Amino acid sequence: MPVPGNRPLRLAPLLAALLSVALVAPLAAQEPSPVTASLEAGEASARPGEVFTLVLGLDMAPGWHVYGPEPVTGLAAGLPTTIVWDLPPGFVALPLEWPQRESFSLSGVESQGYSGSLRLNARFRAPAALPPGKEAAIGARVEWLACRVECMPGGASLKVSLPIVPGPRGVGFALALLLAFAGGLILNLMPCVLPVLSLKALSFARGATGARRPTNSRRRGLAQGLYFTAGVLVSFWIFAGALLVLRAGGLAAGWGFQLQDPSFVSVAAAIFFLLGLNLFGVFELGASLTRLGAGDPRREGRGEAASSFLSGFFATAVATPCTAPFMGVAVGYALSQGAAAALGVFSALGLGMAAPLLAISALPGLARRLPKPGAWLPRFRQILGFPMMAAVIWMAFVLAELRGASALLALLEGLLAAGLGAWVWGNWGGLDRRRRDRAIAAALALLLAAGGIAWSVRGAVAPKGSAAGLAGVEAKADGFWLPWSREALEELRRRGAPVFVDFTAAWCLSCQVNEALALDDGAVRARFAELGVAALKADWTTRDDGVGRALAELERASVPLYALYVPGSEAPVILPELLTPALVLRYLDENLAGSR
Questions:
Q1: Options 1.10.10.10, 3.40.30.10, 2.60.40.10, 3.40.190.10; which CATH number does 478-595 get?
Q2: Does pTM surpass 0.90?
Q3: What whole-number distance in Å separates Cα of residue 403 and Cα of residue 494?
Q4: Coil vs helix vs strand at 460
Q5: Cα separation of 457 and 69, whole Å?
Q6: What mean pLDDT, rounded, does the chain reach?
């Protein structure tokens, strides 16, 4: 027995154990190992973009045990069991879950490990671009220290092959299409998108009620709806293509990835600002487009077509800061599959977003149910300008989080110049002005607007200022949330603590609403404390491949995502994308309250 306070005597058992390893190691190759290692396929095949399981087994002879994966600290005896995977290109090993350890005593030194039969379920994700008909060879190098009274090191090189079969599965693909369509419908209600769609719907209604020839009116209305749908779809296809290219290059990009780029945020803020000024009546641009074909029957409706297409294209761009319910699952599935499946899901998302306006344009009776244009319309347009200015504030907040106060100042200076350009065009660029005046106004307005945007972008890409982002300061002052890392998550789970992970971003409007209404609620935080739940925040505001890979492992490619890790359960519980305090409390109580 070790004598308290006598360090040499306390070290004696540990030194004896290590000495036994040194003496036994040269003989290990001549004696059969007390541990037998195996690697077996947990499933019959691997599918592109999907998760499959292998079973790693360690069978110990009676009286022998091995140790866990963590390194030895303090006076505990033993060496960790290590596993190094040899994976084909593109395959990803998901975090390995180890079972509860047993306690052992070796020459008076306490340690923990495993005896008997140990089975580890190792999960892997196959790449989406994986040609079927071949085999995936997975290798593992396992090393351990087996102890009884004496200790014997050992190791094994294992390999298993799985056939690759075609994917995706039909049922999963159909469900992803349905969820994407539903998510696209809900995107129409987002504050950045609603003003654009409201004005377009009213223009459809005006065309349905104000035309002299009903047949021609229906034809033109349907054409506008189809052009709007084409704009939405083209925008979604470009977005999907960019995502697939980035992910093929090894970047963990997902929905809203462009808002991680401060240059894009600056340009988006300027566009929101100019659109808001347009709604306030500072300048008119849509009228010029719609009058392009005036007086020429061969070009009739050409301006309306361009305006409708651009409205659909822009509506998709302004929707990206928001994630509607059902979208997370659909987008995550799409990006884990091949290009054809991804384009199909994004097309369904675009069709869902365009469906209300397409229905209004195709059904004149539905359009006539909308309010008729009148004296109220200019005021309504001005009211819709305020959500656009709120979006400008939002983009400014995101930029300050990304690049600091100096970038925010450059953005405000650029918006001032762009606003001056819009005012110039509004006063001297109308169709009632002389052509020479309009040309001068156009050149000056373009110079001011383009120069202002360029100045904002220059400030966004300049070295980050010393002032911290606004949200970053607030996050540091809040001791409730701890920064997420894979190591922090695994350490908390090894300790047996329940963990709640908030995958979020400063540019994600849904994330901020959920945090303000639900996760910052006093009752929710009190329940976290009562149940001993560790709260981790995985911030995806800037590009972080670690967070991106964690999302991909959970079959998602967008935020918000809320994962509750319950002790003793391998997979986390995924909460809905829209939270309320009552909903969070219910999930906590259902999954954790009974385990304490």
A1: 3.40.30.10
A2: no
A3: 36
A4: helix
A5: 48
A6: 80
